[in-house]
C-alpha cells in the first residue's frame, strides 16, 4: 500500500513540475525579447505540442523566424496561425512583412489588405502597404497610404521620404521636392534623402548650387552614390 502511495505521489509531483501552456509561451516571449530567437522557437514548438490550436504560438514562432531572416519558414508559421484563426490582423500583417522582405510585393499587398480589413486603425499597415505599392509602381495608391500615416504622425520622416519617391515615380517633382525638404528637416541624418533632393533639384529644376550642396551633405553622411554626381557636375 505504501509503495502504491509513493508512485501516486511521484506522478502528482511530475505533473506539477511540467510547465503549463501559458508558462511555455511566456518563456518563449521572454527569450524572444532577449533576442534568443532559436531558443524561443523551441518553447513555441512545445506550446504547439500541448495545444496544436494555439494560434498565438504559431504567430510568435513566425516572428522569431522573421527576426532570423528565415522568411519562408516564417511565412509557413504565419499561415498556420491564419488557418487556425483567420480573424486576427496580426499574422496577416506579419506574413505581409515577410513577403515584403522577399520583394514579393503582390503577396505582401494581399496580406496587408486583409490585415487592414480586419483592423483599419493600425497605422503600420498603411505604411508597409505603401512600401509594397511603391514596389509595384502603383504610385498614387502608395501616396494615399503614406498620407494616411502622415495625417496621424506628421513627423514620420520615412513616410515623408517614401512619399517623395512615389511622387517622383508619379512624375511630380514639385511635390517630391517639398516632401524631401520635409524629410531632411525631420531627419538630418538621412543621406539617401539629401541625395535624392540634390539630384531632383539639379535634374528637374537646374538648381545646381542647391543640388550640389545637398549632394555633398549626402556624401558626408556616407551615401557614396552622391560622389559620381559631385565629380561630374559640382566641380568648379
UniProtKB/TrEMBL annotation:
Keywords: Repeat, TPR repeat. SMART domains: TPR. It holds the Pfam family TPR_16. InterPro entries: TPR-like_helical_dom_sf (IPR011990), TPR_rpt (IPR019734), Ycf3 (IPR050498). TPR repeats lie at residues 21-54, 55-88, 89-122, 123-156. This is Tetratricopeptide repeat protein. It comes from Fontibacter flavus.
Amino acid at each position: 500500500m505504501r509503495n502504491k502511495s509513493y508512485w501516486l505521489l511521484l506522478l502528482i509531483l511530475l505533473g506539477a513540475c511540467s510547465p503549463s501552456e501559458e508558462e511555455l509561451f511566456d518563456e518563449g516571449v521572454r527569450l524572444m525579447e532577449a533576442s534568443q530567437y532559436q531558443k524561443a522557437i523551441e518553447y513555441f514548438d512545445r506550446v504547439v505540442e500541448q495545444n496544436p490550436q494555439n494560434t498565438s504560438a504559431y504567430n510568435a514562432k513566425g516572428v522569431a523566424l522573421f527576426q532570423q531572416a528565415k522568411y519562408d519558414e516564417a511565412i509557413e508559421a504565419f499561415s498556420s496561425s491564419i488557418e487556425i484563426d483567420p480573424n486576427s490582423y496580426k499574422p496577416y500583417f506579419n506574413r505581409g512583412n515577410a513577403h515584403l522582405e522577399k520583394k514579393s510585393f503582390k503577396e505582401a499587398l494581399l496580406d496587408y489588405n486583409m490585415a487592414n480589413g480586419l483592423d483599419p486603425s493600425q497605422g503600420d499597415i498603411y505604411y508597409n502597404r505603401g512600401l509594397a505599392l511603391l514596389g509595384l509602381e502603383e504610385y498614387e495608391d502608395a501616396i494615399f497610404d503614406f498620407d494616411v500615416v502622415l495625417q496621424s504622425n506628421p513627423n514620420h520622416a520615412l513616410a515623408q521620404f517614401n512619399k517623395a519617391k512615389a511622387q517622383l515615380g508619379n512624375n511630380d517633382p514639385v511635390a517630391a521636392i517639398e516632401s524631401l525638404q520635409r524629410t531632411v528637416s525631420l531627419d538630418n541624418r538621412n543621406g539617401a534623402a539629401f541625395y535624392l533632393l540634390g539630384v531632383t533639384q539639379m535634374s528637374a529644376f537646374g538648381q545646381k548650387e542647391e543640388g550640389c550642396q545637398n549632394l555633398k551633405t549626402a556624401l558626408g553622411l556616407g551615401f557614396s552614390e552622391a560622389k559620381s554626381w559631385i565629380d561630374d557636375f559640382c566641380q568648379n
